[in-house]
Design brief:
about 400 residues, Aspartate Aminotransferase, domain 1, 2 domains, 7-stranded mixed β-sheet, about 35% helix, disordered N terminus
Length: about 400
C-alpha cells in the first residue's frame, strides 16, 4: 500500500545518508542490507476472507518491492505519501485523471512536450480545459487562473528545453488563492536541489526514468503528495484501476539507482556548470541557456529556490543556425545522440525537430544532458563538432 516516510532518527539524517542506505532499511527476516524483490502478484487471505493487517490484496494496487523507493522519495521531498508508476507520463497524467470533466488546468507553455500534447489533445477531448501560459510571468499566471474552476496549476522548473524558471512559492500562493493545487514536475532538479512541497506545492512528480534511476535502463514515474487527502486517494485509485504500476524488477532497479543519486548529480551538475561557462560567449554559440549563469533570465529565482547547484541540463544555441545545429549531434563521439536525460552518459538532441511545429524550442537549439564523464572530454568533443558543423 502507499507508504509514508519513516520517522525518528532517519527523519533528521542528511539526504545523502538516506539515499545510500535506502532510509537505513534492513530486511527484518534475513537482516540483508539490500531490499528484497517480491515477485508475488497476489496474497493469501485468512480463513474468514480477510488479510493479516498488511492491506495488500493484489499486486496491481501495491507491492512490497515498491516500498523502499516510495518511502525514500517521500522522505526526500518532505511529503506524506509517495506512489510509483509505470512511467513519468503515467504519473503525470494520473494527476489530471483524478480531476473531473469540465475542470480547468493551467500549465506552462514551456514544458515536457509529450505532456503538453496530451493535455491539449486527449485531455481536451475528455473534457479537461487547459490554458497554457508563460509561467515566468506571474501576472500572466494570475490572469489565467479561474477561482473555483481551476483545479491544478502545473509547473515545471527549470523547464525543458529552454530551462525557464518558475517562482514556485509565488505560483503556490496564486494557486491557493484560486482554490487550486500546485503540482510540480521536479524531474530535473530532483529533491536534492529543490523541494517544491517546502515552497507551497501540493504534488511533486518525477519522471523517475531520469535522475532518480540514473542509468537509462528503467522507465518509471513517481508522485509525492503533501497530504493523504481525498484528492490523493483519487490518484491512488487511478493507479490501481488503470494498472499503471511499475514492474517488480524495475522497482528494485529504481531504488538501487537512487542509492547513488547524490554522487551522480554532484558530478553531472559540476560538468554542466563547466560546459556552460566554457561556451558562454563562444564564437560558434549564440547563447547558453543554463540557470546557473548570471545571464539566464531566471538565475535570481533559481538561486533562491535551488540549493546546492543548478542541475545538469543546459541548452546551446548554435550561431550558424538550424542546419548546423542539426549536424552537431552526428559529429560527436563522447556525447551520444539520443533522447532522454539524467543518465550517467551525456546525451544531446536537437529538440525542435523532435517536438514538431508547436515546439517552443528555437530551431538552432541543442539540448544537453551532462553525464559523469570527464568535463574536459565533453568540452573538447563539443568544440570539434561545432567547428565542423559550422563550416
Amino acid at each position: 500500500m502507499p507508504t509514508a516516510p519513516k520517522t525518528g532518527q532517519s527523519a533528521s539524517r542528511h539526504p545523502d545518508t538516506l539515499l545510500a542506505q535506502t532510509l537505513a532499511g534492513v530486511d527484518p527476516v534475513t537482516r540483508a542490507v539490500v531490499p528484497a524483490i517480491h515477485m508475488a502478484s497476489t496474497y493469501e487471505r485468512r480463513p474468514e476472507g480477510g488479510y493479516d493487517g498488511t492491506g495488500r490484496t493484489y499486486a496491481r494496487a501495491d507491492n512490497p518491492t515498491f516500498e523502499p523507493a516510495e518511502e525514500l522519495l517521500a522522505a526526500l521531498e518532505g511529503g506524506e505519501r509517495a506512489l510509483l508508476f509505470s512511467s513519468g507520463m503515467a504519473a503525470a497524467t494520473a494527476v489530471f485523471m483524478a480531476l473531473k470533466p469540465g475542470d480547468h488546468v493551467v500549465a506552462p507553455r514551456v514544458m515536457y512536450w509529450a505532456l503538453r500534447k496530451w493535455l491539449t489533445g486527449y485531455a481536451a477531448e475528455w473534457g479537461l480545459e487547459t490554458t497554457l501560459v508563460d509561467m515566468t510571468d506571474l501576472d500572466a499566471l494570475r490572469a489565467a487562473v479561474r477561482p473555483g474552476a481551476t483545479k491544478i496549476v502545473w509547473a515545471e522548473t527549470p523547464a525543458n528545453p529552454t530551462w525557464d524558471v518558475t517562482d514556485l512559492a509565488a505560483a503556490a500562493e496564486i494557486a491557493r488563492a484560486a482554490g487550486a493545487r500546485l503540482a510540480v514536475d521536479n524531474t530535473v532538479p530532483t529533491p536534492l536541489l529543490t523541494r517544491p512541497l517546502d515552497l507551497g506545492a501540493n504534488i511533486v512528480m518525477h519522471a523517475a526514468t531520469k535522475y532518480l534511476n540514473g542509468h537509462s535502463d528503467v522507465v518509471a514515474g513517481a508522485l509525492v503528495g503533501r497530504a493523504d487527502d481525498e484528492y490523493w486517494r483519487r490518484i491512488v485509485a487511478v493507479r490501481a484501476a488503470g494498472g499503471a504500476i511499475l514492474g517488480t524488477m524495475e522497482a528494485w532497479l529504481l531504488q538501487r539507482g537512487m542509492r547513488t543519486l547524490s554522487v551522480r548529480l554532484d558530478r553531472a551538475q559540476a560538468n554542466a556548470a563547466r560546459v556552460a561557462a566554457h561556451f558562454e560567449g563562444h564564437k560558434l554559440v549564440a547563447g547558453v541557456l543554463y540557470p546557473g549563469l548570471h545571464s539566464h533570465p531566471g538565475h535570481a529565482v533559481a538561486a533562491r529556490q535551488m540549493r546546492g547547484g543548478f542541475g545538469a541540463m543546459l541548452s546551446l544555441r548554435v550561431k550558424a543556425g538550424r542546419e548546423a545545429a542539426l549536424k552537431v549531434p552526428a559529429l560527436t563521439e563522447v556525447w551520444k545522440h539520443a533522447t532522454s536525460l539524467g543518465g550517467v552518459e551525456s546525451l544531446m538532441e536537437h529538440r525542435a525537430s523532435v517536438e514538431g511545429p508547436d515546439t517552443p524550442a528555437p530551431p538552432d537549439l541543442l539540448r544537453l544532458s551532462c553525464g559523469i564523464e570527464s568535463a574536459a572530454d565533453l568540452i573538447a568533443d563539443l568544440e570539434q563538432a561545432l567547428e565542423r558543423a559550422s563550416r
